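Researcher: Going back to the complex we discussed earlier. I've cleaned up the inputs and rechecked each line, so this should be the final set. Can you rerun the prediction on the complete assembly and write out the structure?
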Amino acid sequence: MTQLSFDVQLNPRARSAGEREEVLANPGFGQFFTDHMISIDWTEGRGWHDARLQPYGPLVLDPATSVFHYAQELFEGLKAYRQSGGSIVAFRPHANAARFNRSAARMAMPELPEDVFVQSLELLVQTDREWVPTTDGHSLYLRPFMIATQAALGVNHPSRTYKYMVIASPAASYFSGGVKPVSVWLSTEFTRAAPGGTGFAKCGGNYAAAFVAQRQAVQEGCDQVVWLDAFEHRWVEEMGGMNLFFVFGDRLVTPTLTGTLLPGITRDSILSIAAELGLRPEEGKISIEDWQSACESGELTEVFACGTAAVVTPVGSVKGADRGWAVGDGTPGPVTMKIREELVGIQYGFRPDTRDWIHKIC
Ligand code: PLP
Ligand code: COI
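Model: Rerun complete. Updated structure for the full complex:
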């Protein structure tokens, strides 16, 4: 097992219990950060070094730093949960570590040993454990990321230095208003990812290129954008920060991982638990025409989005440039809610963890 030795510098200006409670009363999503952060540097020829836990705060970087110009960066997202018995746990952190390294390989960035990735999360969460919310359904969102730090403008080779960091942010639900169906916009004008590109990697560029479509979705009166394939703008891929599932009675279908969509850990977990819930999970291809006609015929009863931040969120209506339709009756469907309860139950410890997905931190 690879472990690094971390230099620990505690924050002399850590927030008081009162200040923390004020934040935790209404954390929103991704707006407030804990008192500490993790930083580990990488240098060509030397590898990972200078691992430390330090007070949360700004970075000082040369304006020529590669990440500012060429977006050589990647990130992860997972949560720490306070379970009913009092333990603080993470959900499948090794799966995030493995995806981090698949993203790193695509972005020509160094891989971080999986154990060090998990060790860094443990150290941050243990130090900032008072920031893990006690409110039902709230959690501490963990954001590991890596940036290219070489100050150089050439593009003949990737950066020769990198910084890995982890920050943490107390989180309520991603969508305000609890579990209520979201409306989605079919993006036929823009493309998120094409074969050979970076769709499967969790790199910032994918999200930078998506904002214009998300803004269009909002202008069209929708909550979220649905991405379609690059060639025909016809085959459903995923949403801006979530994967999609389609419920045809007891058949549960999600788009196949083709390299152009993110292999969500929530998606993978749902495929794994579905059979126990009496469902038949499968990966396949869904066109927007099939989506519309199966909703209209009543064959497709529910659609939901899933992801770390979004958990399991029903989709209630669909709109595109030349079409629009409703999914189900506008209320969260029973299959969606059953899957959500099972998943959340495992994460918060009121359902058995038979797959060793729960990683106890403290
Ligand atoms: N798809 C995209 C584009 C995402 O950003 C996310 C969020 O991480 C997901 C899917 C869901 O992935 P996960 O379940 O691992 O959070
Ligand atoms: C996540 O669920 O972790 C995401 O990455 C979604 C979004 C906040 C980017």
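Model: Worth noting: Residues 77, 238, 241-243, 262, 264-267, 307-308 surround pyridoxal-5'-phosphate (ligand 1) (CB under 6 Å).
Researcher: Good, that matches what I expected from the previous run.
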